[in-house]
Design goal:
single chain; alpha/beta; two-stranded antiparallel sheet; 10 strands; 52% helix; elongated
Length: 534
């Protein structure tokens, strides 16, 4: 009883999120080890979300003591924490949120840790770097990429902020796009589906049977009838598709037949272009699909997929094996489900044999890739994604000029680009004056703000020049505003940026959904956001 309760407890605790990323995703989270650099409000918000989600362990690196200012923007700190280690205090409160998560802390400046102990980061699944200056971030990015550790950089600064992912390669099987066409193969039905469709008389005068014939059967039968009358070709032009819909309507006995309405609405599925999409073709033809002993499981499966398409698949991907809801007699619907599931199982079995053959060929254990993993891959072959990221050094020193110019030419993107440049310029100014613009010890706030505006502008011009954008101009008002921000981490902005960072970490750890492919910029002045692919 006690053992059963122990197993059931996580399922109850994480019930809602399990519905999104499933047992496999949750297991990946519970195995993950996260390192947070700087536990100000941005970092704390990111870590809080991950701890509540059941991440395996967290390590906080921060050498600061809790000050009065921390109490105003970090809800995990209270007056009892004043003067104490900020990292220790945050870990203590995080542990209270979820005692299943292991929380550790290191009282050390992140910049010092990056400079003196780079091997420290190799133990983690993901490193979340918050509020780091550009110089430290570039060093950390190089360290993480060489160790193949995921880096997520996050920064909130006044009314703006950014999030950026950095890793050499991230492969996604379960990309879970919002909208995707059902894999019904109406353009190329296999033998069992054709036989089942032929076993049902779509001209049956029995009103109950006629109005409960599944639209899949209707479309398979009428597509075959169309092809017989058009030299084996399915409807392709707009006029032909219109005529095909008329053909479907002509078989209706009554206007209230929902199954025929569904067939008309889904008639375009008959005209799906056969074969492989360009995105999947690009993955299959990638040089990484030429596998060896060091290849990842993902690329072994891609190599197997390439062989499957050329052989058992006859130019098609493995069938997903699911069908949508539709108007149908129960017995017809259940029979259709079984036909699709059987075909998907057959395709998966063929893939499994090819995977084992490839593993044996490259010197790996043929059983080293589980059947569950192969099955998940087969169900998602149309939605595979490979994300490759430029290093931060490459982005900063050699951005894609055509993209940068495009962003500057667009009104909304231009604001995001301005913030991107100014956040980099802020670090230049801080390196020269040992402080962020707008932060002063004296009381002459307004006059010194006026002094920092031209300094920040000069630093921004230097950044633009290095990017190859000579002559590009920035908003004077925005330069002034960034000086007025004075490096503040405003809690609502920090919560939003921290939330974005934790969302990306979950995508990267579970390997579900597609992570940000660029630098996410939040514009809190206009409440807009933009992803800049530089």
């Amino acid at each position: 009883m006690a053992a059963a309760a122990a197993v059931a407890e996580p399922k109850t605790k994480y019930d809602r999120q399990l519905r999104i990323w499933g047992d496999q995703g949750q297991a990946a989270l519970e195995k993950a080890s996260i390192c947070l650099l700087n536990c100000g409000p941005t970092g704390t918000e990111a870590l809080k979300n991950l701890v509540l989600g059941g991440i395996g362990s967290v390590t906080v690196v921060d050498g600061s003591k809790v000050e009065q200012a921390d109490l105003g923007n970090n809800f995990l700190l209270d007056e009892g924490c004043l003067g104490q280690s900020r990292a220790k205090s945050i870990c203590s409160f995080l542990q209270e949120l979820n005692d299943a998560v292991k929380a550790k802390y290191v009282e050390e400046s992140p910049a010092t840790m990056i400079d003196t102990n780079p091997s420290f980061f190799s133990q983690f699944t993901v490193v979340i770097a918050t509020q780091l200056p550009e110089s430290s971030l570039l060093k950390l990015d190089s360290i993480c990429r060489s160790a193949n550790i995921v880096l997520v950089a996050a920064r909130s600064y006044g009314l703006t902020g950014l999030v950026r992912v950095s890793i050499k390669e991230h492969c996604v099987i379960e990309s879970k796009p919002d909208h995707f066409l059902d894999d019904l193969r109406l353009h190329k039905p296999w033998t069992e589906l054709k036989q089942f469709a032929k076993s049902i008389d779509i001209c049956d005068k029995d009103a109950v049977v006629h109005k409960h014939t599944p639209y899949i059967v209707i479309l398979v039968r009428l597509a075959e009838k169309w092809a017989d009358a058009h030299d084996g070709q399915l409807p392709s032009t707009r006029q032909e598709k219109r005529e095909f819909k008329d053909l479907i309507r002509a078989h209706m006995l009554n206007v209230d037949e929902d199954n025929y309405k569904e067939a008309v609405e889904s008639s375009y599925k008959v005209s799906v272009t056969p074969g492989i999409s360009d995105d999947i073709r690009q993955i299959i033809d990638d040089s990484s699909s030429e596998v060896n002993l060091s290849s990842s499981d993902f690329w072994v499966l891609v190599a197997a997929l390439k062989e499957f398409i050329a052989n058992e698949g006859n130019g098609e991907l493995p069938l997903e094996g699911t069908i949508p809801d539709m108007t149908s007699l129960t017995e017809y619907y259940v029979s259709l489900q079984k036909i699709y599931q059987a075909k998907a199982e057959s395709d998966c079995l063929a893939m499994e044999h090819r995977v084992k053959s490839i593993l044996k060929r490259i010197g790996r254990d043929p059983e080293s890739i589980s059947r569950a993993y192969i099955k998940t891959f087969c169900k998602n072959t149309r939605k595979l994604r490979v994300c490759r990221y430029r290093s931060m050094e490459e982005e900063f020193s050699a951005p894609v000029l055509s993209e940068v110019q495009k962003y500057f030419a667009d009104e909304d993107s231009c604001f995001a680009m301005n913030f991107y440049i100014l956040l980099r310029a802020v670090d230049r100014l801080a390196a020269n004056y040992s402080r962020l613009p707008g932060i002063f010890d004296s009381t002459g706030f307004t006059s010194e703000i006026d002094e920092d505006v031209p300094r920040l502008k000069l630093a921004a011009v230097a950044v633009l020049t290095e990017m190859g954008l000579n002559g590009a101009s920035l908003s004077e008002d925005l330069i002034t505003e960034v000086c007025r921000f004075a490096g503040a981490e405003i809690h609502p902005v920090a919560a939003f940026i921290g939330g974005m960072a934790s969302q990306e970490v979950i995508k990267l750890v579970t390997k579900q959904f597609v992570p940000l492919m660029g630098t996410f910029i939040f514009n809190g002045i206009d409440l807009k956001s933009q992803v800049l692919a530089l």
